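TL;DR need structure tokens for one chain.
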Amino acid sequence: MLNKRKLDLISKKLGYEISSYSFLGAGAHNFNYLLNSRERKFVLRISSINKNPLIEEYRVLKLLENTNLAPKVYICDLSKKIINKNYLIEEYLEGKHPKNDEEFIKNMGKWYKILHNNKTNRIPKFARKNNYYSLIKALGAHGLKDYKKSIHHLEGKIRIRTEEIYNKMITIIKEKDKLLHKRNNFSLIHGDPWSENIFLTKTGIKLVDWEFAEYDLPEWDLMQFIRHYCYNEERKKIFLNSYRYKINSLTKEIFNVIELIESFSTLAWFINRLRLIKENKIQEKHSHHNKKKVENRIIKELKKTRQIIKNSNFF
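>> reply
TL;DR here they are.
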């Protein structure tokens, strides 16, 4: 995809002479390359799908330019004149992935607080015309489409159990649909706190991979982080206290429902992955999980979702 001619054109556009490059890795929707110049290093992010123009990621990174939360961004090129895909170029972060200890959890609570101070009073896409935030609409973007498209690939008892859990969840979400109707401002959220996206640099913690960033409920970010890193009640409290999140009966209920949706979203993702494998749209050897591992993960995530439904209190 890259050659000397393309690198020369990128160098001219960037204002730095690129001397070499190497492949860093592939994400769900992009390919990433390390670009080297004498002065500094850059990351070239090339979109692997046409529906991901990278322009929103570029705008978010520009917005955060003076916050020390994210890498600096230089270029977003949608012309397809140099590379036949959309791409952006951002700062290469020199750092390491932090240890998952209490200090990290505290620092991430403070990090999220700064990020979520970027607010908007615009109603996001999950809000209805009468201005309340709809959990049913949110569910549509958190796994519902994948589930409906892929559920027929499950068979026997596992399908019966999955459909039972789905029906219970839908009932709960419909009952709680107006839970957030009083919200009138929303925060910028990152949406993907995977460990590989978090770097401890000389100037503090920074996150990369902002393709899922949007204005929405900060609780989506908080719950994702809790599910990834806070494996007991004490760590949850440390994180939320560091964030200065007020815990009361309403916020407990909000977290409980969002955890349910997040758990279902993970379950639906693996069911969809199974569909793609069965339809030969991804090769097992090139996927992160082979068919057997995906099936085992579906069973595991199904148990988690059932447990969340069973537990009336999250905290």
